[in-house]
Amino acid sequence: MTSSKLKRDEILLLFDVDGTLTFPRSVVQPEFEEFFYSKVKPRATIGIVGGSDLEKMFEQLNGKKILNEFDFVFPENGLVQIERAQEVGKQNIIKHLGESTLKRFINFVLRYLSELDIPIKRGTFIEFRNGMMNVCPIGRQCSREERNMFAAYDQEHKVREQMIATLKKEFADIDLTYSIGGQISFDVFPHGWDKTYCLRHIEANYKNKYKEIHFFGDKTEQGGNDFEIYTDPRVIGHKVTSPHDTKDILTEILEL
Q1: How far apart are CA 120 and CA 186, in angstroms?
Q2: CA distances for 78 relative to 91, 164, 194, 210, 217, angstroms
Q3: Residue 1 confidence (pLDDT)
Q4: Which of 185, 183, 249, 194 is nearest to 216 (CA)?
Q5: Which residues, in sequence order, are CB contacts of 36 under 8 Å at separation 6+?
Q6: From the annotation, which residues make up the binding site?
Q7: Domains parsed from the chain with CATH numbers
Q8: Which residues are catalytic?
Q9: What is d(CA 131, CA 187) in angstroms, rounded to the nearest whole number?
Q10: Per UniProt, where does Mg(2+) 1 bind (predicted)?
Q11: How far apart, in whole angstroms, are the C-alpha atoms of residue 154 and residue 183?
Q12: Of 223, 225, 217, 212, nearest to 241 (Cα)?
């Protein structure tokens, strides 16, 4: 049976946000939003699974209406689970790792960044979330222009890759995963707390309901924050580079 022949409650489409439904750190385009809600939503169960927190999802997808538009909203790699505008589950990194381990990690990161020589630095170098930490060498308070500049610099000098290699060596005794997502930062979380975490919720509550689960994401290479779910055998993965790609693939598989 092809995807186009499945009923809405038999097919689940999961989407990364940044670079998939929107251009990087941009707001969803009106024409894409119209296509998505009027054409895709009636044909399939839809969910978003992003690395960022819920507020950043609101910023990029035009506000709190996503809580009602999407069947599933999975911020922070699915470590927070929301259905029909209600939070139904949440994981917590503080309880998992413990305060002493967290403090040791944060102190090391701040020392490393204080000695890191890059063209510019701004503010907010570590962002603490429910299920992960987000580390940003340039600082999340940079402007769009500065963000793009760092992305190009990082592509050449591998700032994030080198920092992750150092952290893996220093904290080899701690069960942590490092995942590059977006243009300027990387996520740190316990092993298994990647985007496949949302599949635990689906399997626990909707076992065998969906005949197909599709995932759309842009950071699908190893080390990217879409890699684990993109390559998961339970999922049909689609690599995209922009919302245009996402639209084209959806049009094809759903025969829109």
Answers
A1: 18
A2: 9, 22, 8, 18, 15
A3: 46
A4: 249
A5: 21
A6: 16, 18, 25, 129, 140, 147, 185, 187, 218, 230, 232
A7: 3-91+194-253 (3.40.50.1000), 93-190 (3.30.1240.20)
A8: 16, 18
A9: 10
A10: 16, 18, 218
A11: 9
A12: 217
pLDDT digits (tens, 9 = 90+) for 99-132: 999 999 999 999 999 999 999 999 999 999 888 9
What is the model's pLDDT at position 2? 63
Q: Is the pLDDT of residue 175 over 50?
A: yes
What's the token pair of residue 148? 């793009």
| One-letter amino acid for residue 41 of the chain | K
Instruction: Calculate helix-pair angle for 159-170, 99-115, nearest 10 degrees.
Output: 140
Length of the chain: 256
User: Residue 69 — very low, low, confident or very high, per pLDDT cuts 50/70/90?
Assistant: very high
CA angle 105, 106, 108 (to 5 degrees): 65
Binding site for Mg(2+), by residue number, is 16, 18, 218, 230, 232
